[in-house]
UniProtKB/TrEMBL annotation:
Keywords: Dioxygenase, FAD, Flavoprotein, Oxidoreductase. This is 3-phenylpropionate/trans-cinnamate dioxygenase ferredoxin reductase subunit. Residues 6-302 form the FAD/NAD(P)-binding domain. It is an enzyme of class 1 (oxidoreductase). The keyword Transmembrane does not apply. The keyword Flavoprotein applies. One of its GO terms (cellular component) is cytoplasm. SUPFAM superfamilies: FAD/NAD(P)-binding domain (SSF51905), FAD/NAD-linked reductases, dimerisation (C-terminal) domain (SSF55424). One of its GO terms (molecular function) is oxidoreductase activity, acting on NAD(P)H. Its cofactor is FAD. Residues 322-407 form the Reductase C-terminal domain. Its EC number is 1.18.1.3.
């Protein structure tokens, strides 16, 4: 029998963990891992946290040691991408023009930052944060301190970058069209807490305003808001979300809608092609609907799940969405989905003013999401509450003396 070939498009965290899992599960065929960046696979959280703050070395972000790929007979092609897919021929064509036949194909192509298309958007000094190169360039811009930094967007990336800019000693202004930071992620109450946190650390927040344009002669010197204000800027950081890199899949005729549509086994509309990570819009059996998750844990867990499914194992990928963030002296972990309209009550346990608490989002008495703020080792219990789908007693949920494990 000829050797089987599994191709992984995207040398990302999801792609690298899929390759690792294939070998761990005993797959002895050819594994080709293709990535357009010149870096070997790395994790993205340090780019807006430890690496950007100059607290973690560059090497710590990499998924594997440099020699891991050779030792495990994984062909890693950096600086290369999959340019096209011929589903009928079971073949991909690389950006080098090389054709490669595949038995199974995994698309782990990730996402790209949304760009601001406004006057002046091509000026120097406007940064987006997605790659290690982006983070290195931004760190160089922030590290001297004393700069006027404007952050467009008060989502997770924007707030983490704003915190890093302040810790480097820069003036920071955050511009956000929603009434509070993270409004879409967790609603007005907890979003207001993050607004207070950043203001207490000296950042200026301009809520209910967008970015209308930039001024500057080659180099950005000011940001023009939708309200007509001009905010001086030496450095601009744009963090307004990402778009899934689903063009390759769409050109190949796969089903695409806000990412590549996959089932609960991460299989696309083609039974020999799978997708994982930011690019996958997966049916989530626990939630009973599709969801596209852009966070680190989804790549970490989704890559291995897709690898096992590619090997023919019975896989049901139903991980509870999970995210963590560090901003100034606040550390948090969030599990579940707490978008406005998906809950009807928020219950707090602990010291909310002191920012040591757990918040629970409830819908019909059932926990749909939970966030622990400067409280640790509770994520397992929070996720168990979400997974159970059973109504809980809100009074006991709010009582720090009632063990969470008992409520499950």
């Amino acid at each position: 029998m000829p050797e089987e070939t599994f191709v992984i498009a995207g040398a990302s965290l999801a792609g690298a963990k899929a390759a690792e899992t294939l070998r761990e599960e005993g797959f002895a065929g050819r594994v080709l891992l293709v990535g357009e960046e010149i870096e070997r696979p790395y994790e993205r959280p340090p780019l807006s946290k430890g690496f950007l703050l100059d607290k973690e070395p560059r090497e710590k972000a990499h998924v594997h040691e440099a020699d891991w790929y050779d030792k495990h007979d994984v062909e890693l092609r950096v600086g290369t991408s999959v340019a096209s897919i011929d589903r009928g021929a079971h073949q991909v064509r690389l950006s080098t023009k090389e054709p490669v036949s595949y038995d199974r194909l995994l698309l782990a192509t990730g996402a790209s930052p949304r760009r601001l298309d406004v006057p002046g958007s091509k000026l120097q000094g406007i940064h987006y944060l997605r790659t290690m190169a982006d983070s290195a360039a931004l760190k160089q811009a922030l590290a001297p301190g004393g700069r006027r930094v404007v952050v467009a967007g008060a989502g997770w990336i924007g707030l983490e970058a704003a915190a890093a800019a302040r810790e480097h000693g820069n003036e920071v202004t955050v511009i956000e069209p929603e009434p509070v930071p993270l409004h879409a992620a967790m609603g007005p109450e907890l979003g207001g807490m993050f607004a207070d946190l950043h203001r207490e650390h000296g950042a200026v927040l301009r809520m209910d305003e967008g970015v209308a344009g930039f001024w500057g002669a080659g180099q950005v010197s000011a940001v023009v808001t939708s309200g007509g204000a001009e905010v001086p800027a030496d450095v601009v950081i744009v963090g307004i979300g990402v778009r899934p890199n689903s063009g390759l899949a769409e050109e190949a005729g796969l089903e695409v809608s806000d990412g590549i549509l996959v089932d609960q086994s991460l299989r696309t509309s083609d039974p020999d092609i799978y997708a994982a990570g930011d690019v996958a819009n997966a049916y989530h059996p626990l939630l009973g609907r599709r969801i596209r998750v852009e966070h680190w844990a989804n790549a970490l867990n989704g890559g291995p799940a897709a690898a096992r499914a590619m090997l023919g194992q019975d896989v049901v990928y139903d991980q509870i969405p999970y995210f963590f963030s560090d901003q100034y002296d606040l550390g948090m972990e969030m599990s579940g989905v707490a978008a406005p309209g998906e809950y009807d009550e928020v219950v707090y346990r602990g010291d909310v003013p002191g920012r040591e608490f757990v918040a629970f989002w409830l819908s019909g008495g059932r926990v749909v999401a939970g966030m622990n703020v400067n409280v640790w080792d509770v994520t397992g219990d929070v996720q168990a509450l979400i997974r159970s789908g059973r109504p809980v007693d809100a009074a006991r949920l709010a009582d720090p003396g009632a063990p969470l494990a008992d409520l499950v």
